[in-house]
Protein 1
Amino acid sequence: MEIFTLENVCAGYEGRPVLDGVTLRIVEGEFVAIIGPNGSGKSTLVKVLAGAIKPVSGMIKFRERPLGNYGWGDLARSFSVVHQFGPDPLPFTVREFVSMGRFPHRGFFPAMDPGRKREDRHREAVERAMALAGVEDLALRKITELSGGERQLCAIACALAQNSRIILLDEPIASLDIRHSMTIMDVLYDLNCSGSTVIAVLHDINIAACYCRRMLGLKSGRLFIDDSTEGAVAYDRIEALYDTLCVTGKDPVTSKPHVYPVPGFVKKRFGSSGGISGGGASTEA
Amino acid sequence: MSRMKTIAALSAGAFLFVMSLMAGPKIYSPAELWNMLVLGADERARSVIMGLRLPRILMALGVGASLSVSGAVFQAILKNPLADPYLIGVSSGAACGAAAAIVLGLGYFWVAAFSFAGSLGVISAVFLISRRMKIGGSSLILSGVSLGFILSSAVLMIFFLAGPGKVHQAVMWMMGDFSAARYDMLAYMGAFCALLIAFVALYARHLDVISMGDLYAQNLGVTPASVRALFWAAALLASICVSLCGVIGFVGLIIPHAVRKAVGPGHSSLVPWAAAAGGVFLMAADAVGRSVVRPYDVPVGIITGFAGGIFFLLFVARGREYR
């Protein structure tokens, strides 16, 4: 089933257009990476998918119904979004924070939830989410005391408590060390294997290539690449996407394509002609 | 909070309540209190306690609870631990209205009405200005602070034009005082404030999510309408209190802050405990004000100012972060 259908979507902030005619379809069960240079509209795309920004023109459908037809609560129950943490959150414990993911599933008056069963179900969902994200040991710690990587895992746990079937993530592994990056990507990979749809903005093409099956490359608000990982991570396409000289090879462990940017060869410095003779050589060639 | 702590807090509150009944221009001993209130001796002293001190104490309880809950809501909405209801201009609007009414020589009712109208005007202006942007951002604080500057100048202008006697009266009003407390007024105020506090308490889970930031609030399905409702509930709580008792500072700032340290940031426990602690704090502050420079009544705003300043100094000196 198609989860998201975008047709010719243009969107932006207060008259500054960012997305420029994006057309794409995302099907249930996919693991999609959104890549592209800074300012190319990756975060805007996530916000548009999440319903946080209304498109100026074009059409977005969620599960084959226009996104605008869903109420705030409906959307919050249908998928979850993981954001970067704010600068300094209040000192909630990890369990309290993850429980917030149940917010859209609760009735307004707790007393209106029939019996204790409902409350048990919420608690179960919270414990399961913490276990999936591997933060159950941190349950009683305060989120303010955690490291960046642990916080990010908690944010993912919160999203899992909210809805683990469809997850959107905005740079989930930005500024994390390799261990936490791998932990988070493994969690997402396992979720995807159990049927969840995962859509993540990623800066690290190589990590994205190891885990994701499909890549969307945005450049100046346009969908520049929409291909399988193997098709997308080719030196000419990545070079054109980032305007940076690249060499591609194979990851020795996963055999997935790997990108090596070449120092000192940002293309703009050579004019707009693009191709640098003899430069874009693949190590596979 | 553990059961022991709860019992300790409740008994401290009860103790301070009895102390406040004793405190005043004439200090009664517990035995005298018992004799007059339970056994019915000394009719005159009894009428002082029941007719003057008790309504004053109840007023302080209600105002303290309201200001403190209002502060807790603003700290969550603005995502700023140093926010309080006065930051968005509730107090400056009220002061301007009250100063105008006092200088015009109007009575207590009209002073309250003018100051309520003044603070409602400022809140509406802040609300309309910041509505074009998103509520909760810095736009609320910035428009509140700038309107505050304008209105402070307006107050000074009114003082400049008025005679010294009126100015003194207006300045006294601004320091905050409960001496006007009467039972009929208390009933209305208490009913309104209790309703608004109950409303805020129902939205405790919303407040938790809102305090995590706009993106969380949005994606967890908190509607902008509920944020607006909370904004208005908190603003009304503060402006009702300010228009009846003057500008009593620091309660909305330090009490939610201190209570958060004790019971945690979750609003389902923070809101009721902040209400209780705010009420007891203001009751005790007023009792101190009534008894330090007998027979004069030190305005309660002076006492809360001292207490609040010292509290923050201690906080800074202990090197804790602001949360």
Protein 2
Amino acid sequence: MAETTDLSKGLPSHPEKATLEGKNKFLGFWVFLAGETTMFATFFGTYLGLRNGTGSGPEAADIFSLPLVFIMTMILLTSSLTSVFAMFAMKKNQFKKMKIWMWVTVALGTAFLGFEIYEFVEYVHYGLGFTTSAFASSFYALVGLHGAHVLFGLCWISLLLIRYNKSGITLTNAPKFYVASLYWHFIDVVWIFIFTVVYLMGIGG
Amino acid sequence: MVREATNTLQKSVLWDWLTTVDHKKLAVLYLISGTLFFLKAGLMAVFMRIQLMFPMNDFLSGQTFNEFITMHGTIMLFLAATPLLFAFMNYIVPLQIGARDVAFPFVNALGFWLFFFGGILVSLSWFFGGAPDAGWTSYVPLASRDYGGLGIDFYVLGLQVSGIGTLVSGINFIVTIINMRAPGMTMMRMPLFCWTTLVTSILIVFAFTPLAAGLALLMLDRMFDGMFFIPGEGGNVVIWQHIFWIFGHPEVYILVLPAFGMISEIIPTFSKKRLFGYTAMVFATLIIGFLGFMVWMHHMFTVGIGPIANSVFAIATMIIGIPTGIKIFNWLFTMWGGKLTFNTAMLCASSFVPTFVLGGVTGVMLAMAPVDHLYHDTYFVVAHFHYIILGGIVLGLIGATFYWYPKMFGHKLNETLGKIMFWMFYVGFHLTFFVQHILGLIGMPRRVYTYLEGQGMDTMNMISTIGAFVMSAAIILLVINVVYSAMKSPREGGDPWDGRTLEWATPTPVPEYNFAQTPQVRSLDPLFYEKIHGDGTMKPAEPIGDIHMPNGSIYPFTISLGLFFAGFGFIMLNMENAIISPWIVIAVGGIITFGSMALHSVKEDHGYHISKETVEQMEKEVGTNG
Amino acid sequence: MNSIMFLHEFTSQRLHLYYQQQKESGVKSLMNGLRRLFKFAPFMAVFLFLAGCGERRLTALDPMGPQSQWIYDNMILSLYVMAIVIIVVFVLFFIVVARFRHKEGDNEYPEQVHGSTKLEVAWTVIPLFLLAILAVPTVTGQFYLSNTGLEAQEAENEEEVDEEELDAESAEELGDDVMKITATGHQFWWQFDYDFGDDSFTAGNEVYVPVDTKVAFVLEAEDVMHSFWVPALAGKVDNIPGIENYMWLEASEPGVYKGKCAELCGPSHALMDFRLIALEQDEFDEWATAMQEEEEAPTESLANEGRELFEEQSCLQCHAVDGDGGAMGPSLANFGDRETIANYLEVTDENLKAWIQDPQSLKQGNNMPAYPDLSDEELDALVAYLNQLEKLDPETKEGLERD
């Protein structure tokens, strides 16, 4: 498909949706995110059902540290913003700019992941292991699942950036970058919910 | 010949089937593997019926019986009904909407191989100390680490892998139906089978993800000492039931809606009439799909969630009866005033209607929550859902097999054998399951491996078993029919039934690219429209030209194989003396899977083109064939 | 919460009235009944057939208590409503199949009808009414079934503490105590704890209740899920580990009722039956008093030997013979009164010996250890000891109706 499209006048304004393949990816990915949402919803539901099941272990209010989580939230929000800048650059066919913004996104994501690991290690020191109580299990499952998504997103975006380092923006890779940034936003939105449901409700009751 | 003209020529047959991304070949793969799983689970059912033939029979022990009920249910729903429906969805839907392939041929192949390896993983349990034994619902704590054996691990990981396959296939169908329709094929001109496929796929996206989450939780519980479902340290066993049924109830509609679609194709064709109340049928499908998510707690009326919740879910459940009723009456009125031909396909499709009503009315009876305290977990429920599944889904599937067989394999199935098979199946089915309603009411719980003498259950259990024998004879006859017809039946042209929809506008065998020129659709039942208002052939929407096709790929196979290894590795964590460290197996599996994904992502594969000349030549060949 | 309580009361009052009316207007309703009989004669035939199936005091088609009666009546109601649907569909179907057939050589297409809005509305609205008929008893019935009376009793007890001044009426109500039994499911037997304040005791596998009295059950589970079901008396409710569930039942006739576990609980799920024995109130009181007595050494010497063996072999660790002893296995305090051994075997000395020697072969997956090394004499002694552990008055036992 890609090579049959006339590119003599430069890229179309929405390079990610210019081909049928791109359109399919775009829609398919939205549907996939719908499924992901349901899966996270199930984990949220489980967490809400079990968050008072602390057994003999520590409770949410005992251990959560709001400043740390607030910093993490800000980092992830900013990374979402930088990926938006990258997409603006892509639509203007500024490949270099897009690359830089994407790499910034990756850097911020990595920082977030580092904080999260630090956070988990701290909790384990406080005596909240995965097997301590139902609350602990459901907390680590939910936040850990999100962390795994972040890790997967980082690998994916890095792989794309390395693979297309020299190719410029084409009708083949535009949908890929677009979809990856969509995924990144999704991760960000999920984190907002985690921040509210897990941390704010955990501390505030 | 057609297939030889394209690039499959250079490949060996095995490599071709392993790497194919052609929706038609994948459909055949689904059909074969689904049938094998169906026969396997059917055999288990026969064994269970033999065990229940006499009171206190000792043909199977309680443990083996529990393994059989679990595997029977799990295989039938996940590994037989789902792939068999996917076979027809894969083969027919792209043809019916006038597309050359599905939206993501690669993902389509991935879906199949994930399902296949997931199924193999579940089945492997027999060789490692016994199959799962906690029922297809795997209720905790019976399925949690303290009470459930290694079999449950195979259940968890196998279903996880095959569930991902089902999920990605569902996404693929949604995008295909929304994006790939031929010019003029508006949503409200789509055949009902496409509509039900679309709604089913949406249900898959929203139902299989909770299942994936639930299975992940159970896995964490069983292998990494999680506390989700362990009462005592704050865990709650009822959460599993909620998650399972949030998936489990829509799953019923995931299976039955495509069957509705098949019936809605077969009945108009053999009544020579268009579907009565098409719009109402479409909306009824949508409403059923939506309500399917609102009623999961009716599986849990006796769990003690309180009278208010019970009442709300009871009434929501009853409401589903209304769109289902709309469908029943629309089918009846499609036949009303038509000119009916009763071949095997039509026998199945038409008898579906009254049979499904019998399953439906017991469904409404079950919805009455307080009375359900009587029915719940008895043979009444067993009878009810077998009326839905056999009288609904399986009759639909057999009908669809007879109906679409000439399109898929170039010849019809033998009608005489087919009609004998139908009547045997139908009589056997009612013999088996009708008495089970009464068995439940006189006090026989479900999932019991035996029953005592002197409880008035002997005769009816005997009748039920005899019915099961008759039904199995019918299935054997179907297998014989397939072999017999392959040798004896004459070749058929593209349109053997005087069809109404687009799939019958393609030549048989269907060329790799389906349509040499994308057809222009002018109405619902487009082919029938052209038969009345045109010359009986579809008008092309584009000039003949080069056709772009996707390349085959081995990555779907390797990605699935990697997940199979990883899954097996996780199961090894619970094995007592694994030969090598489970983590090595998990790592190897992970590397194969993610490596294949990365390779696929890095390698840009633009497919290939079939040249205009080849297409023209192939069309000529096909033209002389039929 | 107030509105729920109101609904509770409202429904139970209404139901009470309903049953009284049923009883009183016998003669008047006879004529109506006859008329109905003619109308629904074919259905009646089916019901008679149904009632003929199954065993009395087990089958739900021969209800023996108010709750099962309610369930049965409403099942019949739903059958009537559903019969309308079935008849309409089947009649239409057979007309279609008989009338509209393709004839050889007829190549004309029939008229291509698009549909009919009127018909669509008809088969949307009419079923709505039919469902409404079923929806009303569904809601009221669920409250009726869920109302064990325990909640109301607790609320009243609290009130009693709060307000010292009680008028005569509410004092009367308070006297109307609900009897409470805790039924705990184990793999694969039942434990029944009777709570009479200070005088509590435990029975295994057979639960005794007074006849014509509403008995509330608290349902718990020790290991996996079970489900408590006496089909002839009430609907089932699940026993779930970590959760307390409630249900109630009432037996209208004395006798031995069969109960079953209705939730898959392991290999011997099918053999997890129990008996519910309904006694006249005075007989029940007598039995309950006997159950609270301490176990005494038997007079017979063989049985006495058995008693010593019972302690030596540490049977007591799992099986209680009075208030004391473990709860890993069913209490044997009234073993001599048992209707079955191991929930399903006929009561004979041979079966009991076979069970003690090798329980696994009789009931796969149960937790009782085998005692294959006991000599014949030792077995005889054990059996003699166990058989004399009786709490039921011999006359009462003789008079129990079993079928």
